Amino acid sequence: MEVVERCSKSVAFIQTSIQQSASPFSSQVNEYPLGAGSGFVWDHDGHVITNYHVVAGGPSRGARQGPLPRKVMVKLQGCDAQVEAKVIGFEADKDLAVLKVDPSELALEPLQIGASSALRVGQDVLAIGNPFGLDFTLTTGVVSALGREIQGFGGRPIKDCLQTDAAINPGNSGGPLLDSRGRLIGVNTMIYAPNGVGANVGIGFAVPVDTVRRVVNQIITFGQNARPSLGIGVVPDGDRARYARSLQRELEGAIVAEVVKGSPAEELKLAPMRSSFNGILLGDMITEVNGVRIRNNEDLLCAVEEVEPDALISITVMRNCDPSRVESLEVTPVQRKALEYKRG
């Protein structure tokens, strides 16, 4: 009870709506609700964290499209009125968004941040959110599994998620998952819904707090789309497996399909796949990052995105997928938005 009383003031009730003209010939503007969810206070500067799909209008919106111009309103427990928030950044692939409210308008109490490494199956957890619009509701349970991989809103899997049996329902999305001391250990993001069941069946998932901390700090510090990148496109895992069967040998890693001009990958002279008179020439394949084995594309993306800004990393490259031409290289990833500027 003490944890709930202390932490509830940090949990936000979030509502989104969009304004549209009643008709092309009318000046009247109507406001239409898009959805509601949960969030929580991150710091005293007014940053509030929620799920990307809460501000994007739900799964029917394209994840790559980003939030449309809309109104996002935030309410904290004990406050008489909602305040408007601005979406300052999001990461669809991790289903996270960072909002900003005027800190002078609200009494902000940030949650204490925990750590993913300390979690154990069986430990007590608390979820505070707004299921079915019932604001500031508490549910409890335990961590029922660790290391789950779920499909993210942006199309990529989110690794190392927490599985919990605390009742998570529509409206809990974006709310905090807390340990018994009230420390943030995850962000509730989805439920297991067999046969289209849209309510809790005893299996919920949360984005781990270590991922949340990394993504949120990147957005707050460097802005939107600041993930580290080598500046490459990769061959889909399915195609890589097909090439391996055709060659009758193992191809474990991430094969370069495209190199962005002016990128770190171009500086390393990484070679993409290309066509020749004899068929397709395989590009270079990255097999390790900082000594960690790369088995597929997601391994590479996670390994690069999790490095500190401006940090030098080592990568092991198999040139043209030739086992006799393995090189160890060093490179500093750059922010993805810088590559987009060069590409444009």
Structure description:
With 344 residues, the protein is α+β, with helices and mostly antiparallel strands. The chain has 3 domains: 2-100, Trypsin-like serine proteases (Thrombin, subunit H, Beta Barrel); 112-222, Trypsin-like serine proteases (Thrombin, subunit H, Beta Barrel), CATH 2.40.10.10; 228-343, Pdz3 Domain. Helices cover 17% and strands 39% of the residues. The chain contains 7 helices and 23 strands. It has helices at residues 2-7, 52-56, 209-222, 237-247, 264-267, 297-305, 336-343; strands at 11-21, 29-41, 47-50, 71-76, 83-91, 96-100, 112-113, 124-129, 137-151, 157-164, 176-179, 183-191, 204-208, 228-229, 232-234, 254-259, 274-276, 279-281, 285-289, 292-293, 313-318, 326-331, 334-335. The chain has a 6-stranded antiparallel barrel. Strand 11 (176-179) and strand 12 (183-191) form a beta hairpin. The N and C termini lie far apart (54 Å).
Helix-strand blueprint:
Elements: H1 2-7, E1 11-21, E2 29-41, E3 47-50, H2 52-56, E4 71-76, E5 83-91, E6 96-100, E7 112-113, E8 124-129, E9 137-151, E10 157-164, E11 176-179, E12 183-191, E13 204-208, H3 209-222, E14 228-229, E15 232-234, H4 237-247, E16 254-259, H5 264-267, E17 274-276, E18 279-281, E19 285-289, E20 292-293, H6 297-305, E21 313-318, E22 326-331, E23 334-335, H7 336-343
Parallel strand pairs: 7-12
Antiparallel strand pairs: 1-2, 1-4, 2-3, 3-6, 4-5, 5-6, 8-9, 8-11, 9-10, 10-13, 11-12, 12-13, 14-23, 15-16, 16-19, 17-18, 19-20, 19-21, 21-22
